[in-house]
């Protein structure tokens, strides 16, 4: 599921936790990620607020979580090699795992499949990247 406005994705895992990461579009906009500072395990985060800060050569900013809850895990592999975010944004480059407070409520406005693709294409056009 995708939060188009925040350029992040979220996936519910079998144990009920929510894995969050940057989209490939966010990685493209940011360039090579050089720093990753997640919120600490046990920290409560609100929907659409920062769960981690990422930095590239041209951008520093928050990764905003699409679900509220408590940070359950951070990605040690990304801490050691922030470039994993660019190399594998939907796999090994995830940012945090959260114990979601209200998965169904928080994800009701997120996009999937063709809806997500159409929303990202519209966002790219609005951002001046149409036809890339």
Structural commentary:
There is one protein chain. The mean pLDDT is 90. The two termini are 23 Å apart. The longest helix has 14 residues, at 113-126. Helix content is 27%, strand content 33%. It has 132 residues and is of the alpha+beta class. The radius of gyration is 14 Å and the shape is globular. The protein has helices at 24-30, 76-80, 84-87, 103-107, 113-126; strands at residues 2-3, 8-12, 18-22, 33-38, 44-45, 50-56, 60-64, 69-74, 96-100. The strands form two sheets. It has a six-stranded antiparallel β-sheet. A three-stranded antiparallel β-sheet has the order 4-6-7. The chain contains five helices and nine strands, in the order βββαβββββααβαα. Strand 6 (50-56) and strand 7 (60-64) form a beta hairpin.
């Amino acid at each position: 599921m995708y939060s188009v406005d925040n350029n992040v994705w979220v996936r519910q895992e079998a144990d009920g936790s929510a894995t969050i990461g940057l989209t490939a579009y966010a990685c493209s906009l940011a360039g090579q990620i050089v720093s990753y500072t997640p919120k600490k395990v046990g920290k409560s985060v609100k929907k659409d607020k920062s769960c981690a800060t990422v930095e590239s050569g041209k951008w520093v900013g928050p990764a905003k979580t699409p679900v509220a809850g408590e940070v359950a895990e951070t990605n040690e592999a990304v801490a050691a090699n922030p470039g994993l975010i660019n190399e594998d944004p939907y796999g090994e480059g995830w940012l945090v795992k959260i114990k979601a407070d209200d998965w169904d409520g928080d994800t009701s406005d997120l996009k999937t499949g063709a809806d997500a693709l159409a929303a990202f294409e519209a966002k790219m056009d609005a951002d001046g990247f149409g036809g890339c």
